[in-house]
Give the backbone structure.
Amino acid sequence: MNARVCILTTVHRATDTRIYAHEAAALADAGYSTVLVAPWQDDVLLGHGVEYVPIRRIRSRSVRLVRSAFGMARLAKKQAADVYHIHDSELLLVGNLLARAGFLVIYDVHEDLPAQILGKSWIPPALRRPLSCVADKLELRLSRRLSGIVVATPAIARRFQNPVIVGNYPDLDRFPTGSGEIAPQGGSDVFFVGGITRARGAEIMIRAMGHLPRELDATLHLVGRMEPESFLEELQAIRGAERVRFVGELPWSRAWEQAVNSQGIGLLLYQPRPNHTEALPTKLFEYMAASMPVIASNFPLWQEIVLKHECGLVVNPTDPLAVAHAIRALLADGALRRKMGANGRQAIEREYNWGIERMKLLDLYGRIVS
């Protein structure tokens, strides 16, 4: 395969799981010459023969939109690629400039942009719906000029014409220890791995720990970056924080090594916001791949997956007491934890794994390039 692919992002890290570990690596392994243009990151050494072109990280979205579009288009052209794969809605203008110049462009849609805008607390409530409608129309219009659309979930797919759904499912090679076996006496640890924010239920998790009986030996491990950093002081003041270990951000492999070795429970308590209820967070499937029983928000889509595969419990994510009851129930029953952990792992091996999604991505590229 002689085609050259340039993957572009101004928002995500170079080591982002979907962008690098899954898609860039899959393309490079399939024989595509692959280069990743992404914000500068310390000590990044990409494998699989993927080239890395770092760019300056610009925090302001408006500045990125206005100032960097033409600069990114020029930088992209310098990579002399046959296909450009953009991962951010704000790069749609860049994608259109490249498409007008005769290049093949793929737009990879991670999130439901209109739903995201509806849930943004920093946007005045009266402006959210009008801005959401404008974003919806603009995104659809700009994406029509491109060669292909890749989306992360079926809910996002409904907005586009002829998209290819490539799910954010785990690579089984990155979870080789998931056997479903949990030591009968183990499992006193409760984990959340990812960005620690209010929207992802950090406050609810800690309050739930405060509702557990004092005699119950249980620790909540929060593994990830605090967003914003000032949020830490607020969380430490909540009743239940004495049972929380604020681990901080770790490399992906170390974070999940801790979670797997803990033989504990995975929490996924995203709060009910428009861009959450139909999302399919990677963490749900990573917990399952790690043979960890999950306690998840009772959104209909999540509930369907968790109950269908009997791999955890679903709760009202705004109710700390309900979360505490679920934690206590799983910590008290080692056999149930083992069964749910094994069920989750089996579901990943059968249905929700990157090996299946990888073929969808490569099929799209094969059709476009040929």
